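Intended use. Records such as the Transferase hexapeptide (Six repeat-containing protein) entry shown here are meant for training and evaluating sequence-to-structure methods. They are not intended to support clinical decisions.
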Amino acid sequence: MKSIAIMGASGHCKVVADLALLNGYDDIVFVDKNPEIDMLGEYPVADEDTDLDYYIEKKYDFVVGIGEASIRRKVQEMLESKGVNIVTLIHPAAVVAYDVEIGAGTVVMAGAVVNPGTTIGKGCIINTSSSVDHDNVIGDYCHISVGAHTAGTVTMGDNCWLGIGAIVSNNIDICSDVFMGAGTVVVKNLTVAGRYFGIPARRLK
């Protein structure tokens, strides 16, 4: 039996649970701070405050199913401090090149494509039908949203969010803590943290 505890109890967690099932896990539990939730779909929800240590002692694998990057980072770092096994989950319908390096806790969803020479940090979400082209460097706790795409040789810092359908052109550097809204097109380097929207991307002041 393969057992996994998914931190959180949200809609994104349901997608992560399906991903875990497709990766051979047959014992799946959510762990959340809301004691009033006891089921999410067909899976039980345990109380983080009272039950987390049980799943650690039972040597469950762990992954964080929280969409918000700052919270995802905080929870994953807490798990790291406890020495648990944080897994990477890749959907069988994703295409990931042989030499791609992916950090612990990253999830790669159905239809995603990650091309050769790319490095993806820990705790990232490479969402449904997105693509990360060759020789990208994607930092920790980034989210490449549904249908978003990066061209070749893109470097993206930590805690970035590339919104639904957004596009980053080739040879672009993006600093950490950048939010790029849905449909945004990035055609030049983004060197200042903040929220960017439009075609081409402009920072919201």
